Please model this.
Amino acid sequence: MFIIGIAGGTGSGKTTVVRKLTERLPKGEVVVIPLDSYYKDSSDVPVEERQFINFDHPDAFDWPLLEKHIKQLREGQPIEQPTYSYITCTRQEETIHIEPKEVVIIEGIMTLCDKKLRSQMDVKIFVDADADDRLIRVISRDIVERGRTTEAVIERYSRILKPMHQQFIEPCKRYADIIIPQGGHNNVAINMLVKFVKQQIAEKNQTEN
Model:
């Protein structure tokens, strides 16, 4: 098993990198674990207070559960991945059954923030993008997908996303083995990454056999 951690700011292009990577690796042998699925359950928090939860802070994530699940996958055991509702800010009863695969990709803004989780990764990647480009993508996404106004998105970006990025996400660059500038548009970097991962898988298989 080869475990890849992919981090980067909101709107940096992580999803595009993951999609391109998944498309070009052996079909059926890649599973993606979204960090967003591991937000802490906030059902114990009064409904009127949930809107103030900072989802861009490391404390918002259930790191022990994610670490446990990655360890189980590495040991060849299936997991029940949690699902999370942004609408109610609670963990749902439904889970997603995940079987161990050749490649496991953990993807999220703070994937590289937790030391114990990082220690389980075979390669750590940071998807980088200019702050203005990220803001434009966030505005486009939140207006179309989440029905927010431009003013609301910019206010949230200035109040939460930007300071949290500078405090927690950007410093994680130093843990990355590979930094991909220009996000998902950097085909040269993605081609090199695919080649590297395929080579590592082949070497691991040869060692195990």
Remarks:
- The domain at 2-191 is CATH 3.40.50.300 (Rossmann fold).
